């Protein structure tokens, strides 16, 4: 059996390592690698890109741009950095959006969505696309994430034998309201402005809970949370990685824990509310559907593999 040759540029980072581990067990994939001495050698990396059937870039933005600028146009590349997510010449790697899976199938350049952006777009894009929410409506978004989203440096800070007391409590960040995910959160929802976005990191390894509050009065021709729930369920019907729960379905303790899908690659949507207000919530793993899982999903589509191959559901 012939195997797909896959190169993970940046396989020692958090996202790259999980991709490498996920694909390591696949019988139809051969993972290409470089010796330690050549991992920062651009020529050596470009040679692997040319050899591979597909390359994952798990690099800082500038390093990703540098490699892409010299890579063959025919090379299939999935970039997990922020560098190309709103670049018109790249395809955004959120397969569940209308028409996006077909674009990914034929693309050579796919930008993997950001973790916070994944939850926000999953909740808001269908509302604007279907005309239920005006594109100029001012939204806010709250997102809780595990510390693995900060990469190796933050993981080391949280897992140190001796650490500062501040790591015991949730910490708000992105306080300048200029988080790097905001451009894609606006562009991929069709909104005229980004949300007021408040991300929070807490003392657990991985998992994410993204919430968007909306007054019922802001929605067009919608009179209940059940209607929004049905619309979202219809929108994501047949999407193997997204599940929309029944309206107001509560856990036994009445609380949504953000780490419930840690280690998984799927995403859950919940809708709660009352006669005047709704709360839309997306729960997933920041390293799964929010990073490595989404990257592998895109790879599968680009190579014609089963969409969920190698994923943990």
UniProtKB/TrEMBL annotation:
Gene Ontology molecular function: any one: N-acetyl-gamma-glutamyl-phosphate reductase activity
Tagged with keyword Iron-sulfur: no
Stretches of the chain forming a coiled coil according to its record: none
Domain annotation Semialdehyde dehydrogenase NAD-binding: ranges: 5-105
Predominant place of localization: cytoplasm
Cellular compartments annotated: Cytoplasm
Pathway: Amino-acid biosynthesis; L-arginine biosynthesis; N(2)-acetyl-L-ornithine from L-glutamate: step 3/4
Active site: 115
Keyword NADP: yes
Substrates-to-products reaction catalysed: N-acetyl-L-glutamate 5-semialdehyde + phosphate + NADP(+) = N-acetyl-L-glutamyl 5-phosphate + NADPH + H(+)
E.C. number(s) listed in UniProt: 1.2.1.38
Alphabetical list of Gene3D superfamilies matching this protein: Dihydrodipicolinate Reductase, domain 2, NAD(P)-binding Rossmann-like Domain
InterPro entries attached to this UniProt entry: AGPR, AGPR_dimerisation_dom, AGPR_type-2, NAD(P)-bd_dom_sf, Semialdehyde_DH_NAD-bd
Top EC class, one word: oxidoreductase
UniProt keyword terms in alphabetical order: Amino-acid biosynthesis, Arginine biosynthesis, Cytoplasm, NADP, Oxidoreductase
Free-text function comment from the UniProt entry: Catalyzes the NADPH-dependent reduction of N-acetyl-5-glutamyl phosphate to yield N-acetyl-L-glutamate 5-semialdehyde.
Listed HAMAP family: ArgC_type2
Family: Belongs to the NAGSA dehydrogenase family. Type 2 subfamily.
Name this polypeptide is given: N-acetyl-gamma-glutamyl-phosphate reductase
Gene coding for it: argC
